[in-house]
Specification:
Layout lengths: L11 H5 L4 H21 L3 E2 L2 E2 L4 H11 L1 H20 L4 H9 L1 H27 L3 H25 L2 H7 L7 H39 L1
Antiparallel strand pairs: 1-2
Length: about 210
C-alpha cells in the first residue's frame, strides 16, 4: 500500500506557499486587529487627520508572513480609513476627498499599502543575520513611509488645505510637516518602537512552531 508523501514543514516548497491554512488564520486575526485599532485611532484627531494605530498589526503581518501580507493588511487599513473619511471622522481628509476624490482615495490606499510592503521587504533583508534589528527597522519604516507619502499626496491638494482654514496662516508644507503629520508621525513611531520587542518575541515563537 502506497503511503502519501508529506512535505515536511520547513521544506522550501512549503515556505513558498502563501495561502496556507496557517497563513490564512494569521491574516484573519491580524486583519480583525487592524480594523479595530484603526477605528480606535480614528477617534484621535490631530490637525484634521486621525492617528494610525493599525501600523502595528501591519508590521506584524509583514514580519511573520512577508511583504505581500503587509501590503494586504495595509490595503485593508486603507479601506477602513476611507470609510472613516466618508463618515466625516477626519474633517480635513473629508474636505480633500470632496475637492479631489481621485487623489485622496489613491493617497489613502497607496500610503498604507506601501507601508506594509516596504516593512516586509526591509525585515526580509535583515532576517537572516539580524532579525531583532530588522524588527525595529521595519517598525520604523512603516510610519516613515505612511507619513512621507501622506505629506507628498496632501501637497497636491494644497489649495483645499489653504481654503479650509486649518493652516491658520502657516504655509501648507509647515502645517503638514509640523502640525499634522509631525505629531501623528511621532506618536505612531513611538507606539511602533514600544511594540517592536513584543513583535520580535511573537515572530520567534511563531516561526519556531512553523519550522
Amino acid at each position: 500500500m502506497n503511503k502519501e508523501k508529506r512535505v515536511p514543514e520547513g521544506n522550501p516548497a512549503q515556505r513558498k506557499a502563501f495561502f496556507t491554512p496557517r497563513n490564512i488564520a494569521w491574516l484573519a486575526i491580524l486583519l480583525a486587529l487592524t480594523v479595530v485599532l484603526q477605528i480606535w485611532g480614528s477617534a484621535i484627531n490631530i490637525g484634521g487627520a486621525s492617528l494610525n494605530l493599525s501600523l502595528i498589526p501591519i508590521v506584524v503581518a509583514a514580519i511573520l508572513l512577508g511583504a505581500l501580507a503587509g501590503a494586504i493588511m495595509g490595503f485593508v487599513c486603507g479601506v477602513v480609513i476611507l470609510i472613516t473619511v466618508v463618515m466625516g471622522l477626519e474633517p480635513l481628509s473629508l474636505l480633500m476627498f470632496q475637492d479631489h476624490p481621485f487623489i485622496t482615495v489613491t493617497l489613502i490606499f497607496v500610503k498604507t499599502t506601501a507601508a506594509g510592503f516596504v516593512a516586509g521587504l526591509i525585515y526580509k533583508a535583515f532576517s537572516h543575520k539580524k532579525p531583532y534589528l530588522g524588527t525595529f527597522v521595519a517598525a520604523i519604516a512603516a510610519p516613515v513611509v505612511n507619513t512621507g507619502l501622506y505629506i507628498l499626496g496632501a501637497l497636491l491638494m494644497s489649495d483645499t488645505i489653504t481654503a479650509s482654514g486649518y493652516a491658520d496662516g502657516m504655509s501648507v508644507i509647515y502645517f503638514l510637516v509640523v502640525a499634522v503629520a509631525g505629531v501623528n508621525f511621532l506618536l505612531e513611531l513611538a507606539v511602533n518602537l514600544v511594540a517592536a520587542p513584543a513583535v520580535y518575541t511573537v515572530e520567534k515563537a511563531v516561526k519556531r512552531r512553523m519550522y
